[in-house]
Amino acid sequence: MTHDPVADPALLRVILVDDENLIRSALATMLTLEADLDVRGEASTVADGVRLAQAEQPDVAVLDLQLPDGDGLELAGRIADISPATRSLILTSHARPGYLKRALAQGILGFLPKTTSADQLARAVRSVAAGRRAIDPELAADTISSGDSPLTPREADVLEYAADGAAVEQIARRAHLAEGTVRNYLSSAQAKLQAGNRHEAVAIARRQGWI
Description:
Elements: E1 12-17, H1 21-32, E2 37-43, H2 46-56, E3 60-63, E4 66-67, E5 70-71, H3 72-82, E6 87-92, H4 97-105, E7 110-113, H5 118-129, E8 134-135, H6 137-145, H7 153-162, H8 168-175, H9 179-192, H10 198-207
Parallel strand pairs: 1-2, 1-3, 3-6, 6-7, 7-8
Antiparallel strand pairs: 4-5
Helix pairs in contact: 2-3, 4-6, 7-8, 7-9, 7-10, 8-9
């Protein structure tokens, strides 16, 4: 996406970081239709997101949670270091209480599922830019009612990917991890949840709202 070299100070400057090109392009198109929002750039990795944030110093960074070289929470922290005025909004298909708790602990103001409508997202960007929280209400309610998850984010990820009965090699591809690493995460998750196998671990984690 091409932009004028100088941003209009009346517009809210936004960057997008998501490794799903089609989704990222659609988000950029939708947000660009808003008269007060200026999408200044797009990236698909943590590394490129850091470079983009440093170059653009945006008002809001809309970040996917799962990225090939890390996650959106890590990226939000790095952006805060290099562009302190930038506020982050996580937009994810992995909207779980554990992730929301981590995001809130980091001071991230926005956390929404990718099922959010274009209008809702635009309103959330404006809220976050103004220093107000924009949290999905259903996820917030689930987070309040759920206990603290013993799972690390990656353990929760591999359990979620295993929920449909996927083989280890399939989970590894989806999670961008080595097969041995996937096996270690599954084993660790099963032990923490005192489950007899991965399927039982998935059931326990789902029942508790951890995946």
